[in-house]
Design the sequence.
């Protein structure tokens, strides 16, 4: 018999379990030809004594070798190395990567049409102009850091965390609902609200609850593309309505329910995505009237309500009478940092109930620490101060960007200065297709990761979002200079 | 004309926008009877002069009042307070909560059957015995705190965060895949993996990709209930197979594909949820053979692989040949803290591609700071040390709990000491229905939030999970003493 006790060494400090160490080593010995094909292993009891391990450990090691088909069980004789073994490459053994392209077919699925509107290229010197994200330099990371050090608060949060989640921390739902009442003319309570990971999850949940295959959902064209992909994923039919400088064309919308039932409308009235246009007051009135008349549901995505630069925001549709038909969605992520993903969904009670349930199935609970600190920021007024400060900074950056664009790129781009938000919708003239610009920019160290559309014939069909909020004036100028070079 | 300039005061420091302050105050004046029904407002230009605000602000304020139907436009004359106003309660005005029970019907949906297997009752003195969560006292909160203070690391992370998410931070996917290769006998790379928010999201994504309405999915009975709810939500048919002390009954499973096509099997072979039973080696072999024979997909949920108390874990099915049919799911949440939700899904390339896409639609990106710190913990070996430390502690608590249960509750409960994990599956004798026990316990300050099943006739049909890992021995004894009082 081979001197297994010296050939197979067990290291109890190793993170690899003992049986696994044994099985791996035995495979190595077989591969190296030290244990020959057809050779019988010692019985499990004998091997356990040799190795000074529990017999169960040896059984597990042998089971492992059986599973991997290195050995076979011979009735009444024990385990032996398989007489025929597949070709082995000595000295380079690794377990097989078993995650091969699937043997059996996968259902054709609506998520097939992956739209990836960016080039992924990374170097540390690249300038990234994103879709319109906040400047994380303003993020309350220090507060978070302090919270994780605060043992009394931690104790409290851990207690809260030991309880099942009911659509977000109660403290946050209370604080957030009164913040929304103050700033948006609502009168909701915590029971009307579900906390989510950002507005994205809120849209996903709303769509999953409301839409069945074959339902009709109306969206703008162009539209926030990840919303369209969610709707497509539910099997609903997407009907598009054009957008002009007053926002969604409500007259075009009004025609649709005359010929087919509309289940849901998705709209971003405050600063439309991607074009940043604000829905005009006339159209808002008309839209509210249509909701009453045709009784369809509306997802009102108000992700950047808090960012308006001239004290002149438009209250959400949700603050008017809508008979429970509006699902109001917003985000605190834009107020904090892209990593601090907290959003919300506000809706009629039966929708909230379903949303809490689905939220839990998707992701048992949120980040209780993050939810706690946001609640505290709202209650202390820090959040409002933070918003005021950010608004001043972003308004400056917006003005600076528009000024630079007008001075340097007016031969190639058109845009309307937005009255808020974190991005400008740049429309390029026809001779500059946006996809080519993006490729050229990437080659010049400028990553334009904002959502872009290229659809000849559509007045908004050759544009990209230019997120200025997270960039210093120096970087904004640098980015525009690169564009100038490309668009000359 | 009324002295609007003194009646309506504008506070520019208020977080409420100016127009909103004006409209809210005007509504108050109407309600208080100071502005009478039928009275005409000053023109917008005049009002703007009076208030020292931009005319647009006044237009917005008037639009607001129009929307809320306090005033009406009279052609060529201007705006007047509506002659007929609905009954007003002076001094208690709030905007209306418009989120009433929805006016139009909501589609009947599979998420209707909400199962809430707990009583929600909270006081600070309650003992909570959960489903089997880690002890957050071991969580690396201090490391997180330091990371949020580390400006160099923050800079780096913010750069990573500026780029679109491709299924998780690359650094983490690299570290995690080599960690899994070392501990689980896999040979995967970062491209085989998607990072999710915990195992829950991974199950949700896998089910959403794989299942269509009418597909057959096989699960154990009882099963992890949130998995069942996810499967029900897809419209798939759920077929159940019994569980005994060797785990899922694979012989019963083998009969199913003979009469109907099986699309997917969901299994927790290492420590079955809820019963904690480990699938026997014989059944594992048989199951792998069935996968090959009938070519169905399998979600292998291995959420607590790392917690085994006797160096004797069973390697996942995914480490054997499965022809790309296994979707392997795990979690780092159990290693860290319930708030640090990071899990993963490992699968064949076409499944990973869809999963990355769906992940983004559900929740644009994960918490990059959290993903970063986990990657660093894996690379430095801190995670392995953390696991070893936690395992020692949990093994002690498990032994202590089993000892207490045997000594104090053997007249009322049966259980098998698990060889790992964070919970014990307590089966109560028939005369003690688990739902009643839970209610009685809650009244005595003991919240049993673990998953419970009550299904007379099923040998596992009167049980609850008793999560010991997060409790001190003192609290464990306290909890068992309360149970003793109830079960006398």
Sequence:
């Amino acid at each position: 018999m081979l001197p297994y006790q010296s050939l197979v060494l067990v290291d109890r400090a190793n993170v690899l379990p003992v049986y696994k160490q044994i099985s791996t080593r035995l495979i190595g010995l077989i591969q190296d030809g030290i244990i020959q094909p057809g050779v019988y292993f010692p019985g499990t009891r004998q091997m356990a004594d040799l190795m000074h391990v529990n017999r169960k450990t040896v059984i597990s090691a042998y089971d492992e070798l059986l599973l991997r088909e290195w050995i076979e069980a011979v009735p009444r004789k024990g385990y032996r190395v398989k007489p025929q073994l597949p070709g082995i490459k000595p000295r380079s053994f690794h377990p097989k990567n078993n995650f091969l392209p699937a043997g059996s077919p996968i259902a054709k699925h609506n998520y097939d049409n992956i739209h990836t509107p960016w080039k992924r290229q990374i170097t540390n010197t690249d300038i990234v102009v994103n879709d319109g994200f906040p400047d994380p330099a303003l993020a309350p990371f220090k507060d978070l850091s302090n919270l994780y050090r605060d043992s009394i608060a931690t104790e409290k949060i851990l207690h809260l965390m030991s309880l099942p989640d009911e659509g977000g921390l109660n403290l946050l739902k209370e604080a957030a609902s009164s913040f929304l009442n103050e700033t948006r003319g609502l009168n909701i309570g915590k029971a009307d609200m579900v906390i989510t990971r950002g507005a994205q999850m809120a849209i996903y949940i709303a769509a999953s609850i409301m839409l069945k295959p074959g339902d009709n959902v109306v969206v703008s064209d162009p539209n926030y593309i990840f919303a369209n992909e969610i709707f497509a994923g539910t099997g609903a039919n997407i009907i598009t309505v054009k957008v002009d400088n007053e926002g969604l064309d409500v007259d075009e919308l009004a025609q649709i329910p005359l010929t087919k039932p509309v289940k849901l409308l998705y709209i971003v009235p405050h600063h439309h995505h991607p074009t940043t246009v604000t829905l005009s007051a006339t159209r808002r009135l008309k839209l509210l009237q249509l909701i009453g008349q045709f009784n369809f549901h509306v997802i009102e995505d108000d992700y950047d309500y808090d960012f308006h630069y001239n004290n002149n925001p438009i209250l959400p549709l949700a603050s008017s009478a809508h008979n429970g038909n509006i699902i109001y969605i917003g985000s605190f992520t834009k107020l904090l940092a892209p990593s601090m993903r907290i959003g919300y969904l506000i809706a009629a009670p039966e929708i909230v109930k379903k949303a809490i349930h689905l939220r839990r199935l998707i992701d048992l609970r949120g980040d209780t620490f993050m939810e706690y600190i946001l609640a505290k920021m709202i209650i202390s007024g820090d959040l409002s101060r933070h918003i005021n400060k950010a608004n001043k900074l972003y308004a400056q950056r917006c003005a600076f960007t528009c000024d630079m664009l007008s001075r340097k790129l007016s031969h190639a781009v058109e845009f309307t200065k937005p009255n808020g938000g974190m991005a400008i919708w740049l429309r390029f003239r026809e001779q500059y297709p946006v996809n080519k610009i993006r490729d050229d920019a990437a080659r010049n160290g400028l990553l334009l990761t904002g959502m872009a559309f290229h659809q000849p014939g559509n007045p908004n069909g050759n544009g990209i979002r230019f997120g200025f909020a997270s960039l210093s004036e120096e970087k904004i100028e640098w980015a525009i200079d690169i564009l100038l070079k490309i668009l000359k």
